[in-house]
Design goal:
The protein is an alpha/beta fold and 159 residues long. The chain has one domain: 3-Layer(aba) Sandwich (Rossmann fold), CATH 3.40.50. The chain is 38% helix and 21% strand. It has 5 helices and 7 strands, in the order H-E-H-E-H-E-E-E-H-E-H-E. A 7-stranded mixed β-sheet has the order 1-7-6-2-5-3-4, with helices on both faces. Helix 4 packs parallel to helix 5. The chain is globular. The mean pLDDT is 94.
Length: 159
Amino acid sequence: MNALPIDPILPELCRVLVRDGRAVLVAPPGAGKTTRVPLALLDRIDGRIVMLEPRRIAARAAAERMAETLGEAVGQRVGYRIRGEAKVSKATRIEVVTEGILTRMLQSDPALEGIGAVIFDEFHERSLAADLGLALAWESRGVLREDLKILVMSATLDA
C-alpha cells in the first residue's frame, strides 16, 4: 500500500475520536481522507461505520477502493448504499452512503442502533442534506447516544 499524506496522523485522529467522540479533519484533496480514515477506524470503533459521500459515483468508488485495500469484494466488510443500488451484507462494517440514504436512516432510527461512527466526507461541498444529517446525528449523540462518534472531514477550513 502506497503511503498517503494522511497516514502519519491516523493514530492520533483515531485516539482523539475514540476519546472525545467527535473531531474535524481538514486535509487537502488527495491526502487519503476518504479511503484511509474509515479503514483506520475499523478496529477501533464498535459497530458499523457509516460514511456520507455526497455523490453516488464517489460513494461507489470509495467503497470499491477500500474493499480492494482489504483484498475483498465490495459488500463484505466494506459496502455502499446509494439510490437504487446497494452492496452490503451482514458482514459489512463500513457503509458508504449518499445524503438521501443517511437522512432516511436518521429518520427511521434516530438512535442509529448498531452504528458506532458517522463520518461526513467532503463537508466543504455543503448541502442542505449534509447539514441536516450532521445536525440530526449531533442531536442523536447529545440526547440518545453519547457513545456515537462523529467525524467531519473537509478539504478546506471554510466548511
